[in-house]
């Protein structure tokens, strides 16, 4: 039985877990690269840590959208009833952050891992390494915004 | 402009006074000594490059030894100082004393090396013993001394391993009555059995063949005496002795820990010397005299002159302005509000010496954007107070000092925006405000409730930022005398964008006129560097496409809203979780823990996020319009220390 609530909850789940998977893979990739560098020079820990944290944000964005869906469903104070059509809208609204979050986190992690290699050779170039990675994140931010606007303005 | 004016200093002096002059320069810390590359031919014949001196190589080796010793002792030092504890104050006479005493300190390094060798030897012996124990363990229950496992007159005796089931089938294949083979299973692990096998010599051919077929691995121990159990016991006893020995060796380091203080002073003393000698390698000389070139701030010129004259008067000293195209080291000078923001630009690139210092223009935007992205009054207060405490307590210098002050500033900005948008630790402020009957905690508006207004506000900020970047570029062009470039390349674009925006307002008519005039202007002027009239017009027409660039620049500022949203919503989640467990007095304690842990996490992750995204907006959207980097930061010969502070 696919009720509206169920569809909306699937949407919330997708946002949390797809973006979360992306971030988990992402911080993993950068962490591995970073551990190699730190084994050579432990003073670079803080610089590498900053780079590792960057692909972690997509998971947060996904969680955020998931939570807002839960808020809109008023799940903490007895769920509201919504039609299947509205449920579909929530599901669709969660997709930008879910899909873009998943992919952008992994791509950003690759950029950041290369950034780790850059910092290993030239510690003074940390700013540039961060900038490369943050440019990838732009699209996750845009997706977050798109998801938020859709979900916020769905009439329930 | 806030790029400091530099003077080129040329100094010729007597070789025998060189060390003293350099020492004075180092103490002053205001002259960068440069490699001399472009001496006129006739002078080059006179002067030659100093060969890399043995002194600097020797110093480098000593420094390495001291570093090694500090690192080694650090591993055994239980009462380490915290990472942030400041440098210790050391007087010059103490430093000199330690430097004179360096031989006995370098002896500590030798002692450490010996200790480490002993440790390594002891550890490798332990490893060997562990191996023997592991080998013997499966045979522990075999009560025969290993040297006795040998053939007798009529039988063969051997030990080995084999898969258990296979041994069973092997035994079944022998006639039970004959009793000419005896097998004892000593022990068994997951799949393998450890066997003692005895059989009569007259069947040895069949048995050997069968053992081979069934996969028997013969084990031989040579050089051991006694039963496996005895050997294991002996090894374990030896291990204990080795453990004690290791403790005794480590104990020796404890006596050496007392030298750490002096070693740290020596480390810095040697570094200072090394810096000086490395610089000396950059100086030309004739044998009797030396030639040195460097850069000094215009404002420091007098001071340097006076100081050097006090050292000696046998000097030929001259200062000149850098040549028209000469690139000079870049030092920035800004007032104390702008200075912390130099960190942001520094992470990107040092401005070019003929360029412009972007910090005064970038700072207000960085300040404001950070506040909007972080956007929580509670977090802002914590940031500002924590960073202010950090500065007060540790008095950090250089980069750390600037960073601390920067966090104080952006913390204030975060506080301001948090008050305007009514965000105090997520929605905590809002809840409190509602419970005391206020409609909202926001002084202006709550972005969560009016997201479209918020988005518009962010785009507005972005437009101002982008225009400011273009404005600076225009200003630079005008200063270079290219007024038309400024009008065509920046002015027309600004008018076009303003016109397009006005189309959506009541004064659409005005907007229309502005847009059309500027668009026509762009078509006519953007191809002005092309040769023939057709490609002039064509590239003019194509240039209109660049409007998408401005559009995407402005859209990029939606991150201001998105990141603010992230801070707010996660704060809300934390508060919600806390309120869900706060049902009893025990729950309240739990809720408090959730609040503290959760908000700390949210604060840290979002400070990082806000910082990198804010920096990105400056680097890409703002600096992209006008900034020319690639300068070389001014790095004068100075006293650089890691552990001590000279007083």
Give structural attributes.
heterodimer; A: 156 residues; mainly alpha; Four Helix Bundle (Hemerythrin (Met), subunit A); 5 helices; B: 647 residues; alpha+beta; Alpha-Beta Plaits; 6-stranded antiparallel β-sheet; 4-stranded antiparallel β-sheet; 22 helices; 12 strands
Question: Could you describe the 3D structure shown?
Answer:
The complex is a heterodimer of chains A (about 160) and B (about 650). Chain A is mainly α. Chain A has a single domain (about 5-155), classed as Four Helix Bundle (Hemerythrin (Met), subunit A), CATH 1.20.120.610. In chain A, about 80% of the residues lie in helices and about 0% in strands. Chain A has 5 helices and no strands. Chain A has helices at about 5-40, 45-55, 55-70, 85-120, 125-155. In chain A, helix 3 packs antiparallel against helix 4 (about 85-120). The relative contact order of chain A is 0.21. The model of chain A has no long low-confidence stretch (mean pLDDT about 90). By secondary structure, chain B is an alpha+beta fold. Helix content of chain B is about 60%, strand content about 10%. Chain B has 22 helices and 12 strands. In chain B, helix 3 (about 55-75) packs antiparallel against helix 9, helix 5 packs antiparallel against helix 8 and helix 13 runs antiparallel to helix 14. The two termini of chain B are about 35 Å apart. The model of chain B has no long low-confidence stretch (mean pLDDT about 85).
Indicate the mean pLDDT of chain A. 89
Largest sheet of chain B: 6 strands, antiparallel
What's the shape of chain B? Answer: extended
Domain tally of chain A = 1
Structural class call of chain B reads: alpha+beta
Number of strands of chain B: 12
Order of helices and strands of chain A, N to C?
A: HHHHH
Note the total helix count of chain A. 5
Note the total helix count of chain B.
Answer: 22
CATH class membership of chain A: Mainly Alpha
The 3D shape of chain A can be described as elongated
| Radius of gyration of chain B over all CA atoms, rounded | 39 Å
CA gyration radius of chain A, whole angstroms: 18 Å
Which quaternary structure do these chains form? heterodimer
According to CATH, the fold-level topology of chain A is Four Helix Bundle (Hemerythrin (Met), subunit A)
């Amino acid at each position: 039985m696919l009720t509206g609530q169920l569809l909306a909850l699937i949407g919330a789940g997708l946002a949390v877990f797809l973006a979360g998977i992306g971030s988990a893979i992402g911080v993993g990739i950068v962490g591995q690269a970073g551990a190699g560098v730190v084994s050579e020079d432990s003073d670079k820990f803080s610089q590498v840590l900053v780079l590792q944290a960057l692909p972690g944000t997509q998971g947060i964005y996904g969680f955020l959208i998931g939570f807002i869906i839960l808020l809109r469903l008023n799940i903490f104070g007895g769920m509201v009833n919504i039609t299947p059509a509205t449920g579909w809208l929530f599901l669709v609204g969660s997709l930008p952050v879910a899909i873009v979050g998943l992919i952008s986190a992994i791509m950003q992690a690759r950029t950041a891992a290369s950034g780790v290699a850059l910092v290993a050779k030239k510690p003074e170039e940390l700013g540039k390494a961060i900038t490369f990675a943050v440019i990838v994140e732009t699209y996750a931010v845009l997706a977050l915004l798109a998801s938020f606007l859709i979900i916020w303005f769905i009439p329930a | 402009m806030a790029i400091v004016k530099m003077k080129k200093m040329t100094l010729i002096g007597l070789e025998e006074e060189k060390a003293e002059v350099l020492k004075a320069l180092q103490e002053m810390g205001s002259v960068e000594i440069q490699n001399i590359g472009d001496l006129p031919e006739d002078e080059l014949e006179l002067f030659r490059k100093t060969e890399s001196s043995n002194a600097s190589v020797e110093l480098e080796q000593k420094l390495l030894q001291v570093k090694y010793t500090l690192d080694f002792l650090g591993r055994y030092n239980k009462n380490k100082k915290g990472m942030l504890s400041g440098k210790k104050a050391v007087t010059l006479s103490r430093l000199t004393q330690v430097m004179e005493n360096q031989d006995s300190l370098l002896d500590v390094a030798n002692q450490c090396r010996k200790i480490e060798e002993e440790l390594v030897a002891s550890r490798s012996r332990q490893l060997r013993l562990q191996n023997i124990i592991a080998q013997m363990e499966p045979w522990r229950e075999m009560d025969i001394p290993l040297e006795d496992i040998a053939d007798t007159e009529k039988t063969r005796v051997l030990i080995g391993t084999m898969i258990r089931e296979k041994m069973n089938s092997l035994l079944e294949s022998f006639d039970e009555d004959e009793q000419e083979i005896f097998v004892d299973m000593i022990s068994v692990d997951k799949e393998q059995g450890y066997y003692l096998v005895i059989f009569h010599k007259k069947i040895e051919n069949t048995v050997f063949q069968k053992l081979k077929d069934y996969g028997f691995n013969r084990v031989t121990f040579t050089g051991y005496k006694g039963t496996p159990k005895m050997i294991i016991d002996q090894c374990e006893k030896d291990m204990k002795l080795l453990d004690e020995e290791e403790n005794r060796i480590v104990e020796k380091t404890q006596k050496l820990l007392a030298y750490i203080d002096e070693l740290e002073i020596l480390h810095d003393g040697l570094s200072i010397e090394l810096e000086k000698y490395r610089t000396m390698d950059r100086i030309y000389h004739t044998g009797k005299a030396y030639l040195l070139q460097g850069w000094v701030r215009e404002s420091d010129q007098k001071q340097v002159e006076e100081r050097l004259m006090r050292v000696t008067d046998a000097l030929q000293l001259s200062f000149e302005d850098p040549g028209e195209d000469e690139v000079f080291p870049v030092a920035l000078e800004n007032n104390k509000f702008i200075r912390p923001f130099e960190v942001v630009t520094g992470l990107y690139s040092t401005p070019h010496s003929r360029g412009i210092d972007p910090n005064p223009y970038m700072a207000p935007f960085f300040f404001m954007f950070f506040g909007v992205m972080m956007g929580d009054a509670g977090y802002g207060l914590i940031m500002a107070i924590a960073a202010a405490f950090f500065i007060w307590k540790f008095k950090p210098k250089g980069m750390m000092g600037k960073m601390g002050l920067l966090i104080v500033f952006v913390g204030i900005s975060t506080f301001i925006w948090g008050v305007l948008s009514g965000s105090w630790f997520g929605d905590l402020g809002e809840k409190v405000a509602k419970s005391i009957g206020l409609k909202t905690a926001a002084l202006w508006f709550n972005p969560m409730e009016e997201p479209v207004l918020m988005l518009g506000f962010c785009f507005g900020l972005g437009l101002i930022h982008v225009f400011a970047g273009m404005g600076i570029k225009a200003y630079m062009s005008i200063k270079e005398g290219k007024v038309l470039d400024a009008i065509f390349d920046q002015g027309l674009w600004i008018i076009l964008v303003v016109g397009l925006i006005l189309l959506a307002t009541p004064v659409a008519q005005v907007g229309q006129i502005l847009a059309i005039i500027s668009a026509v202007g762009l078509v006519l002027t953007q191809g002005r560097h092309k040769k023939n009239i057709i490609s002039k017009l064509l590239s003019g027409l194509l240039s209109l496409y660049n409007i998408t660039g401005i559009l995407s620049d402005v859209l990029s500022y939606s991150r201001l809203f998105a990141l603010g949203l992230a801070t707010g919503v996660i704060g809300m989640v934390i508060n919600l979780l806390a309120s869900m467990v706060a049902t009893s007095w025990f729950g309240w304690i739990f809720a408090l823990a959730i609040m503290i842990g959760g908000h700390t996490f949210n604060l840290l992750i979002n400070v990082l996020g806000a910082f990198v995204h804010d920096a990105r907006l400056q680097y890409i959207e703002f600096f992209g319009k006008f900034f020319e980097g690639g300068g070389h930061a001014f790095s004068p010969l100075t006293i650089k220390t890691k552990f001590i502070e000279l007083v």
